Amino acid sequence: MKNYNIIHLNDINKLKRIELHDQLNLTSSEISINQINAGESLPFVHSHKQNEEIYFILNGEGLLYIDGEEIIIKKDDVFRISPQGARSIKADDNSSLSYICIQAKANSLENFTLKDGKLEDCKPSWLQQ
Amino acid sequence: MKNYNIIHLNDINKLKRIELHDQLNLTSSEISINQINAGESLPFVHSHKQNEEIYFILNGEGLLYIDGEEIIIKKDDVFRISPQGARSIKADDNSSLSYICIQAKANSLENFTLKDGKLEDCKPSWLQQ
After folding, report:
1. C-alpha torsion sign, points B19, A110, B49, A51
2. CB-based contacts of B18: which residues, under 8 Å, 6+ apart?
3. Where are the alpha helices (DSSP H) in chain B?
4. How many angstroms separate the CA atoms of B43 and B118, rounded?
5. What's the pLDDT tens digit per position in B25-84?
6. How many beta-carbon pairs below 8 A join chains A and B?
7. Is the Cα torsion angle A13, A14, A19, A23 positive or negative in sign?
8. Which of B51, B66, B103, B121 has the fewest CB atoms inside 10 Å of its own CB, making it the most exposed?
9. pLDDT at B14 > cutoff 90
10. Is it the case that residue A12 has pLDDT exceeding 80?
């Protein structure tokens, strides 16, 4: 079995919602790409039992509701929400809102980058002399 | 302590490299935003001890080396790599390559979306009658 899965999406900014867990055989996280139409919002407030969420705003503007606060969000904002945070999102009346949402189990990360990485001896064609 | 952290990045597509773990107090994952200049590559091949990686190509074209294969990658490709996969990335000679890389512990996800979510009774201003 190969050590990877790859998919090509159509323009990420035009997707309404796509969930990647099953398509990519993810085991560490669920990742979705979402778009809320101008003036619309998620119809509920939710929290999580275990998972931390990280949101990348790809395009547009809107509002994040979090534990009673309402915060303006826009393209290139990135935010983390703890599992217990009560959250919802609304697109601005004049702008749809596109974002990536990553959910992964809070406190599950043990090491990362240099401490989790291992150098390998094999080389791609472009690194061979 | 608040249940969230938020940062505003300058144009994601113009960042050389930024790591979000410490800035966002991430506990589930490390997320980086990366740019490889046209014609350049990561100078090594690496694998991971524990972490699965997911890459989102934001802009440009290039090549993914994975376990001896070389695969063309481009904007809106998304791929997952198992910890043991030996990987490297190169930007096309005519195009820089921007991508998000998420690393999180393989097999750590227990539930997600509906099974991990909980509805909350509180409401933002836009959902109140």
Report:
1. negative
2. B9, B32, B33
3. 21-24
4. 44
5. 999 999 999 999 999 999 999 999 999 999 999 999 999 999 999 999 999 999 999 999
6. 279
7. negative
8. B121
9. no
10. no
Cβ proximity of B29 and B96 under 8 Å: no
- Average pLDDT on A44-69 reads 97
- The DSSP annotation for B113-125 comes to GGGTEEEES---G
Tell me whether residues A120 and B51 touch, CB distance under 8 A: no
**Contact yes or no for B127 and A88 at CB 8 A:** yes
**B19: buried, middle or exposed (CB in 10 Å: 19+, 13-18, 0-12)?**
middle
Element (H, E) at A62: strand A51-66
Residues of B in contact with A24 (CB under 8 A): 54, 78-80
Region A106-123: mean pLDDT is 96
Distance CA A17, CA A31 (A): 11
* Residue in A closest to B43 by C-alpha: A127
Give the Cβ contact number of residue A80 at 10 Å.
Answer: 26
Indicate if the alpha-carbon torsion angle B9, B13, B18, B21 is positive or negative: positive
Q: Token digits for B98?
A: 């921007």
Spell out which residues of chain B touch residue A6, defining contact as CB-CB under 8 Å: 64, 71, 73, 77-80
B108–A104: do the CB atoms touch at under 8 Å?
Answer: yes
**How far is the C-alpha of A119 from the C-alpha of B44, rounded, in Å?**
7
Answer whether A124 sits within 8 Å of B84, measured CB to CB: no
CA distance A54 to chain B (A): 9
CB B96 within 8 A of CB B60: yes
Residues of A in Cβ contact (< 8 Å) with B38: none
> Three-state SS for A14?
helix
